[in-house]
Please model this.
Amino acid sequence: MLRDSTLKVSSIDQGISFIKTRMRHKKVFLILDDVSHFSQLQNLVPSPHCFGPGSRILITTRDKCMLTAYQVDEVYEVKLLDYDQALELFSLNAFKRNGPPATYLELAQCAVCYAQGLPLALIVLGSHLFGRSREEWEARLDSCKGEDPRREKISVLKISYDGLGADLKGYFLDIACFFKGQLVDHVRAILEACYALKSVISIAQFQEKALMKVDRAESPFGFGKVSKDRIWMHDLIEEMGKDIVYQESLGEPGERSRIWSKDEVNHILTDNTGTNKVIGINDIRRSSAISLNPKSFSEMKNLRYILMGEYRKRECVSR
Model:
């Protein structure tokens, strides 16, 4: 945008300064997708007038309060699908046609009710039920009953997870907790060392069940750059996977299979609370406060890997 190939940004503060001083006369159309922290808005749009007249900024987020606090001009709430739209989307995935056959109409209506108009839930649930018998439909849908609205959505998504084998479940949880957005080749090398399954087959199965997909991202800098395949997972699917791990132990993170939160990593390594249930730990170099010693790992006898360092310099220590 600035037509300056020598431009270097070495810190967030310097980046904010560049935006304020060098972009204020530029008319831009800026899309900030999936904003999850207020600091992201503060850093990328540091003031109301940091871009030139006529600029437009679109922000997508699941946190409406963030938009209110940032005093955006307009807030548009994306509507859930109405019944007819939801039934059609579900049918396209469950029956590969625009509507359900008469023999499955009642079950399809029940599934649409559980999904509450959420497109992702309709796609995941429909993909999972495709080609299954009425008995399997009834059993899967019965498992969703009696939940509060948020838990019900998680339960609908979890149906597809519950149908996976043991190794595939572990593979999926690793991706949800650690590897979303990373290069497929890097993830494949790590997980194939930890599981008997081939990652090509596993990733294909996840894609068939609409649990994840592979995106090819082109480099934005210059020509001749090779595109890279990255693992993409919807936020709700990621949340579902992390919720499954969180439910393993509500109070003590050292009793869970995977630790990804910086505070929880600090806790188990500083207080030596890790157990033999821990199989993976995320980036331990994000905090200089950790003082490692042999006791930090002495009880984690099933630890398979520790992810360390920034993304571009990520390493995996595998046991």
